[in-house]
Write a structure and sequence with these properties.
- There is one protein chain.
- With 224 residues, the protein is an alpha/beta fold.
- It contains 8 helices and 11 strands.
- The strands form 2 sheets. It has a 7-stranded mixed β-sheet, sandwiched between helices. A 4-stranded antiparallel β-sheet has the order 1-2-3-4, sandwiched between helices.
- Helix 2 packs across helix 4.
């Protein structure tokens, strides 16, 4: 209780742990809320939760409530799952995929991941998971980072082409990206141009400053 009170005055570090995948991880108590961070970015909760909540709002909470299952690629400590369960009131199945066992352990220890009854966690590479799963999803949330860097495979044609194969006909993809440089802005522009024949893409730049949300759906299921 004392730490919680003091956290409204200054941030309190609860854990520091090195991960071979994500680098230095830290759990911080700030204004009574636990946050998971790496040296250069918010990994779970904090601004990241607001960014993904923004994307879910653009898809539409009511639309999401009617869905049966959602895939989260880049689960981390599960802030988007908390939003889905607590705010959106989503009651279907959530499958969370993450390659970093240290992040998942922290999520279980500090962020109650194991207490979310409709969440199933898969400790594996996102590329391998989407190639091997036989499940079709109504929504896919792509939020894959290594610190503040996005793996290049996310923008290669194979990844989102494979995602389309596991997406239901009326499904939608929420893709969280970061744009801090002209090169990253051009990367996103190239991505949109390449996939414009496969998806309808809604683009929301400068969300919480440097993030850009892309929402991909079939043309007949535009989020506009």
């Amino acid at each position: 209780m004392l730490k919680r009170i003091l956290s409204y005055i200054f941030p309190i570090t609860l854990l520091r742990k090195s991960s071979t995948v994500s680098g230095l991880l830290s759990v911080t108590l700030l204004s009574g809320k636990r946050l998971l961070n790496t040296p250069n970015t918010d990994y779970s909760f904090g601004s990241l939760q607001r960014i993904l909540r923004f994307g879910l709002q653009k898809i539409g909470f009511e639309r999401i409530q009617k869905q049966k299952n959602i895939l989260v690629l880049g689960l981390a400590a599960g802030s988007v799952v908390e939003t889905l369960v607590e705010e959106v009131k989503f009651r279907g199945q959530i499958h969370g995929v993450d390659i970093d066992k240290d992040v998942i352990e922290i999520g279980r220890q500090y962020f109650n991941l194991d207490k979310i009854k409709n969440l199933h966690i898969f400790l594996t590479d996102a590329q391998d998971y989407i190639k091997t799963t036989s499940i079709k999803y109504d929504s896919v949330i792509v939020d894959i980072f290594q610190d503040d860097q996005m793996p290049t495979f996310l923008f290669a044609p194979a990844f989102f082409s494979q995602l389309k194969k596991i997406l239901n006909k009326k499904g939608v993809i929420l893709f969280n990206t970061i744009v801090k440089t002209k090169a990253e802005a051009q990367r996103n522009q190239n991505f949109i141009q390449f996939f414009s024949d496969q998806y309808h893409i809604d683009r929301y730049p400068k969300v919480e400053g440097e993030n850009e949300i892309l929402i991909l759906s079939t043309n007949e299921n535009s989020t506009k």
